[in-house]
Structures are given as structure tokens and as C-alpha cells.
Sequence to fold (853 residues):
Amino acid sequence: MEHTILERKDCGLKAFCCETPQFKTARLSAHLVLPLTSPEVAAVRALVPNISVRATRAYPDYTAFGKRLAELYGATVQAGVSRIGDNQILTLAASGIANRYAFDGEDVQAALAEILESIVFAPLFDADGLFPEEGFLQEQRQLLETLDAEFNEKRIYAKNHCTELMFAGEPAGVPKTGTKAAIRAATRAGTKAAWEEITRNAAVCQFSIGDGATIQFAENFAVKLGARKTLSTESSLHPAPAQVRRVTEEMPLAQSKLVLGLQVGTTREQRLATKLMAAIFGGTPSSKLFLNVREKQSLCYYCSARHDTPKNVIFVESGVETSNLDRAEEAILTELRAIQDGNISEEEILHAKLALCNGYNAVADSAASIESWYLSCMLQDSMHTPEQDAEAVMRITKDEIVEAANHTVLDTVYKLKGVAKAE
Amino acid sequence: MNTVMTRESRLLGERYYCVKHPSGLSILIYPKEKMRSTYAVFGTRYGSIDKAFLRSDEAQAEVTPAGIAHFLEHKLFESEDGDAFSRYAKIGASANAYTSFETTRYLFSCTENAEQALEILLDFVQSPYFTEQTVEKEQGIIGQEIKMYDDDPQWRVLFNLLRALYHNHPIKDDIAGTVESIAQITPAYLYRCYNTFYNLNNMALCVSGNCDVDHVLALCDKMLKPSAPVQVKRVFEAEPDAIVQPIVEEKLAVASPIFEFGVKEAMGDVHRTEKDLAVTEVLLDIMASDSSPLFRRLLDASLINEASFSYEYFEGSGYGVVLFGGESSDPYAVCDAIREEMRRLKAMGVTEEDVRRSAKSLYGGNLAGLNSPEVIANAAMTMEFSGRELFRYIECFSEITAADVNARMEALFKEEQTAVSVIWPLQENA
Fold:
């Protein structure tokens, strides 16, 4: 996959461009990266992208802007808030069909570039120079409702709870959109100040991917950003726990959830060995957790492990019958001990390697995967291709895997325990 | 010798190939240049609604316990000498399967060893192996899966609605069945349903991405087992046009109320064409997309949010429902507004400008789907099983007129055939 990378230290911009007719669409995005500090700051910042994509100066009415996007063959403008490592990532993106498929001959991509630029650099303000009150109130309400929606999805709720418990006291422990109280306390003036802080200090990772994408957009972006100093986006590794944190919450549910947070003490250089170890442990349908805990012991419907690279931790998520919660925890840890003791077959290692390589080799087939891969590289300050990781992972030895496992310890146990409905 | 038919769209700049294989299997091959991944799906026209069926070589229809299609999906991965997942693992392919109301599909994606992966797919789906012991073990695993869905408010709100709309049609039954219905499943039932629905005349294979027509067909020639020319007819009890009840409510551990509003479509034996689908989607886009007056009114009144509000035309064999759903502090106010908008649109009609804008938007959305081999293969299979064609469907958005949409609205929007399902928070979550 041919691509161009532009790095402009003078303005804190890293940009990635991949022009390919392989896709019918093109997507332009800007990820604005800032360290997480407090729920209050996270909340006002999280409001900014959501308010910004509601309307533009050219289309100041929400419905009129929606109609304009529909006219552009259902183009989409997206706002997103996520956490990677210790950072809050505010994403603004515009995507739409490649010009060659526009049957009325419009320049869809030029229109989208203009829209995204205006959303990032010249959002709609009212006569007081603030985000319009109507949009602010709408987005404040909707951000609160997304927290309710997380509660409704118990798998996500349980994972988020374990994450916050495990990272308590670290930037990564701050909820990515702040707390309900912090969102409620946000003001229009505070949100405007957050926008100013973002444009002044956020590191910017910009992507142009698809049919018709050019590096020109990134170059224009750099000019708009101008000379500026951005905040560090380095994430610190999660420290070893003094003791295991355990929290159990009860709720009227048919199935309980068990989430284990594991701290890994390997170095950045051991990143791939750690990833491979996590894959053998619970990352694939041929992993120990899937085959032994789910299939052989029938202890849970799902049971999987995933490595969080920036914090170097592993989360194990499972859905378990309430009466099996303790047994499932023990069974999961037994599988970890097996890897620590070197009880891994060459076949297990090969299967996990092939599964990881399959994922790496498929990155180039999806614009979203390409973006996610290179965003991660930009944040780790380590540009490498998926193919390079695929080659490197095949060279990892059993000893390296066992060593990574022996640096892995239980850190946090969160149980969402199902109890009978009270009413 | 296979006869290959080419489907081509100049507008979309795409083409794929269709073959009716001598074994009876329909094969669709959609190469995507520059893609490294191969995605394949092997599916049968057998889903959760197929509890009762009539084979063309038998006189009597047969009724089976709910949940067999899904149970078979779990069990087919096993064989006497291991399971298909471990075979895929040896070559680095990623595999999965799923059961819907209408179909069961087995799939893989891989970036290497695609021919071996396809061989595994064609082999294990054609090699059933069930014993009393393996069936009993699966009853435990599927029981866990059913419990997981019991806690899923989105799932509950939809099925509660379907039970409020449908008296008899099995669309109202959970896809996995119930703990009680799966307890009745035996190896004999599984073999019986397998031999009926996994007849290749009732199946399709779609391969997309990095693939070659000749290689796929050569492998099919080698692997496909001849099937008797048996057709399977879906059997449903007569379904009244009227709904069962207008409101259904439940309380779960949710933080905010969730609703699903449905308009039940009166069904006949009518086959819905590509254009029928496209016209209905244009109608719903005009009515409820985020640039519609209804959406704006609901948003301004803080009755919906952008993240959760959704709408779709949900249709298949013997059923059709227009669904609107999401989170709302006042679900009944949302439903009143939707009914009012149905009345207003029927009175005013839609304009050519509305139709053109929505059609362009939907065309763009469908075109974007052609980026993904997974979307392509699954969309092509859905179209194949419903007697429609993928490119025809996407292209026909350019032909739709206001008259088409207004006529569809007249037939579809019947206020007396609406119902609403609401999940309220439990007291302690409110």
C-alpha cells in the first residue's frame, strides 16, 4: 500500500495520505490529541467535536447542513471521542463517495475538504463569540445520554468500570467524556475555552484515505495550524499493583460479567511478544481461554483477552453464570499460569502467530483499519507497517512468550453480579 | 462445465460472476482488485422462522422445536476428528458463523491460503456430525447465550415489539429458541433439518475480495456433493393483518427508557422487487433521516438523541415492518410524533426534490458498502436468497419518482397496524 507521511514538528502535525481507487469513497479526518487530566476538562473538550459537526458557518442550520450532506450523496461528518493510553482523542472526520461516482458531476471531495476545514478551524459561533446555545444544550444532553447508553450495554459497562478502577489515579483512569456531574457543569464559555485550548495545544494526526485523497489537504491543514507548540502525547505504562483490587457490583441480570485487568511488566521492545502471548491466552478461537474455559469447561459464553498496547495491560472479559463467577476467575488464571509454566504447544504458538499476521495483512483492505493502525503508530512515535509487524511476530520464540507471561500479574477484578429482579 | 454469467454495472464500476453449479448450488464470485483479503460465505436459506416446512418430495409439512437452525450452526463446526476452527487456525484464517431469521451463514476471511480455507468451508458445512453427548454439551453453551440476550435491552425491546405485532408468524420467536425448546433438540432432529435445508439447491456461496473465478469453480467442482433436486417450502400459519396489542412494556436494568415502534405491513404473496425496497428506503429517509423535519422536531424537543435514533424497513418471508427505535425520556411522545408525521406525509405527499435528495444519499451509502468484501458477499447472498440482484438494487435509486414513494406510503402507513414496545428502567436505576 503506497502512502505518504508528512510530519511538521513546527505545527504539531503528523499526516498520512493514501490515494487508492481500491475504495469507492475517500475519508478526511483529524484526530486532536490531548493528555487526559480531569473529568471536568475531559467533559468540556468532549463537547467541542460534537457541537462543531452540528452546523457550519455556510450552513448554520442543523437541518440545512444535513440536507447539504445528503445532496453530496450521503456524505457524513463525524465527531468522536476516544481514549488511547493516557490521551483523549477528539476526532472530526468527513467522508463521501469519490468524484467519479457522482452521477451529477459534483466535486464531492472538494466540498468535504472545505467542510472539515471549517469545522476544525472556524466552527459556528454566535454573536457573543460562543458556540450557539441551542447546539450546546443539545450536545450536553446527548453526551449525558451516551453515558446512560453505556450503562444499558452491560458488557461495555463492565469493561469500562474495570478500566476506570485499574487506572484510578492515572490519566487513563479519567473517563473519556468526563463524568455526568462534569458534563452537567460545563458552560458555553468553558467549551469555547476548551476549543481554543485544543486548537492551540492538541497534537494533530490527520488522515486522507481513499479514491482522490491527496496530501494537499494536510499541507493546507499545516498552514491553518501555523507555528505552535503541542502537548506531549506519550503514555506511561501502568505500574505494578501493590495488591489486587477487587470490586463486585450487584444488578438484576440473568448473566454476570467478569472482567480481569492484568498488569504486564514487559518493556516497549517486548510489545509483540506480549501481544502474541495475549493472543495465545485469549485472543483467538484457538486460544486457551476459548478452548478450555469456554468450550471444554462451558464456564462462559464469551471469554477473551485483549492487549492494550499503550498502557501495556491485558483485559479479560467474560459472560458467566452467577454461580460460576469464582470458578471462571480461577479457570482463567489457571490458563495464564499454564503459559507462565511454559505449557504451550508449538501448534498453539503457530496458530496465534498466523491469526495475528492475518489481521496485520488485512489492514490495507479497510480505510478504517489503515487509519487506526497509523494513528496508533503516530501516538507511539513509531512508524512501522503492518507487514513489518507480521514479519517480526513470526520470529518470536516460545521463551519470549513465556517471559512475557511471567511479567503478567493480576491487578483488578471487577464482577458485575447478576441477582434476581426486585420487582 | 459451468456456465458463468457476468453482472456488470458501469455506474458503479463493478462486476461479479454468477454460476448455477450442477450440484444445485448458486455461486457468486466478486473479485476485488488490489484486495489482499478473501472473504467467503456459505449459507443456507434456513433461519429461525423455519420451524415448519414442506419438502417437495414429501406430502406432509413438519413442525420442529424453535432454535434448531441456530443449534445446527453451533454444531456444524464439530466433526469426528476435531473442529473447523482448529483447521482454520492452522492456516491463519478467521472464521465465524451466524444465524438470522431467514438464513444461516458460515464465513471466513483470510489473507493467505484462500483456497485451503475455501476447501475447509465447503467440507465442514457438508459434513454433519452430531452425537447425544455433543448435543447435550451444546445445550449448556446455547443456554448461556440465551441468558446473555435476556439482559440485552435492544434485543428485548425488538422481540417484545414483534410479539405485539405478530399473532402466529415465527418472526416473533427468539433466534436461539428458548431453554425449553432447545432441551427438545436431539441428534435425529438435527440430521433431519440438516438433510432438508443444507441441500445445495437451498444454498449459496459468495466469495469476494482476492479471488479468481476459475479457481473457485474448480474447487467447487471438486468439493460439492450432488444434492437431490428437493425444494423446501416455508410453512407459516395464516397471519392476520391486525396487530396483537398496541403497547408492550418491560422493566430492565437500564438507565434510560428504550423504545421500538413498528408499523406492521399487510402481507400477501407479493414478491418485493429491488425497486420496492429502494422506494421504501427513500420514503423512510425522507420521513426520518437526520435532515428530516420529524427528526428535527424530536431533537429540538429533547425526545431523541442522534446516537440511538434509528429506523429501518425490516422485511422477509411473510413479514414486513417499518421500525423506529431509540432511547427517549418520553417514548409515547415520540410515537405520537411519528404517527402524526405519517398522517402529514400522506396528506401532503413527498416532492420530487425530497425524493432526489434522499435517493442520492442512499445511493452514496450503498456505494460505500462496496468497499468491503464482507459487505459485498453478505449483501449479494441476501439478494440471491430473496430473488433480487445487488447492482439492480443500487442503480434503481436513480429511477424513483415522487409518485412511487407516495403510492408506497399509502399502502404501508396504516395507523391501526402500529404498536410500541418500551423498556423502562427498574426503580433503582431510574
Summary: Residues 4-152+169-234 of chain B form a domain with the Cytochrome Bc1 Complex; Chain A, domain 1 fold (CATH 3.30.830.10).
